[in-house]
Amino acid sequence: xxxxxxxxxxxxxxxxxxxxxxxxFHLEAVVSLLSPYGSEAQVIGYLHDVVEDTEVTxxxxxxxxxxxxxxxxSLLTDxxxxxxxxxxxxxxxxLATVGGHAELALVVKAADRxxxxxxxxxxxxxxxxxVYRQEHPGFRRAAYRVCLCEPLWVELDALLETSSGDAx
Length: 168
Known about the structure:
This protein is mainly alpha-helical.
């Protein structure tokens, strides 16, 4: 299923870019971070942006990858809103209620955010790094669960607690 999810996601994202790189760069970075959490987490990692950023629907994901994967992808898809702040506030409110088997989505969300922040640091994207830094307390309150994926959170916290000049 992992190869199918990778192929599906790469096809769905097509020629989309992640900054100056092909979108596959971001997907591979997320999935690499998810390797300790199992193949199901990696499948969700490949699919985490397809509903938000392509023509793929949640029903497509459910039909092709099953209800659990579709539920997690749905949780990872930003809520609608007029601004990033509105979208993130609604998404974080939804993530704060997640429990049980759906917490796998929170692992993927942490890996996605860590991959994004690592890219900001590597590419010296000061403005975007600052956005993530300012969002971090709310994001952490919504998505963090004790002992769920501590190594991801330790690195993410460290990268975002560094002063802007030191991190990027």
